[in-house]
From TrEMBL:
UniProt enzyme class: transferase
Molecular function terms from GO: 2 iron, 2 sulfur cluster binding; biotin synthase activity; metal ion binding
Stretches assigned to the 2Fe-2S ferredoxin-type domain: 46-148
Protein name: Biotin synthase
Pfam families linked to this entry: Fer2
EC nos: 2.8.1.6
InterPro entries: 2Fe-2S_ferredoxin-like_sf, 2Fe-2S_ferredoxin-type, Adrenodoxin-like, Adrenodoxin_Fe-S_BS, Beta-grasp_dom_sf
Keywords per UniProt: 2Fe-2S, Iron, Iron-sulfur, Metal-binding, Transferase
GO BP terms, alphabetized: P450-containing electron transport chain
Species of origin: Helianthus annuus (Common sunflower)
Origin organism lineage: Eukaryota, Viridiplantae, Streptophyta, Embryophyta, Tracheophyta
Length: 161
């Protein structure tokens, strides 16, 4: 019988020493490093009030979420026929406070093109899919127009996915 040789076990994965990992900036099984400030921002929520013909509804919206997504998650009737792809104006909202409107990023040319088609356009009109929650917008008040113009499927309201 031939003599047995014991070989050291080899790993295909490089050994990572603890000195190279910073627990605050890395997560196990994450594809991107997330720092503490980003984690706090993600868990932070702002207060947004939607006004429509039936009254008002105040909701909490996570920072980084669009008003269209927030409306859908809270059963607020904001259509969004194109699902946020800037191909319609059915998620048209009116920012009720000029000060809040001025805190928003300027609308892109594509958003302005779609807003030109919106029903009841005002100086503070925006598309809900383009208004993203951020801490300085806490207390945002949005009015929903009485109607929308949906040329593709007039009269049909698709359910959000």
């Amino acid at each position: 019988m031939p003599p047995l040789t014991i070989r050291p076990k080899r790993s295909f994965f490089p050994i990572v020493q603890k000195d190279y990992l910073e627990p605050a900036s890395c997560k196990l099984f994450s594809t991107t490093a997330i720092g503490n400030s980003q984690e706090k921002e993600e868990s932070q929520k702002i207060s947004v009030t939607f006004f429509d013909k039936d009254g008002e509804q105040e909701i909490k919206v996570p920072v980084g979420m669009s008003m269209l997504e927030a409306a859908h998650e809270n059963d607020i009737e904001l259509e969004g026929a194109c699902e946020g792809s800037l191909a319609c104006s059915t998620c048209h909202v009116i920012v009720m406070d000029v000060e809040q409107y001025n805190k928003l990023e300027d609308p892109t040319d594509e958003e302005n093109d779609m807003l030109d088609l919106a029903f009841g356009l005002t100086e503070t009109s925006r598309l809900g899919c383009q208004v993203i929650a951020k801490p300085e917008l806490d207390g945002l008040r949005l009015a929903l127009p009485a109607a929308t113009r949906n040329f593709a499927v007039d009269g049909y309201k698709p359910k959000p996915h």
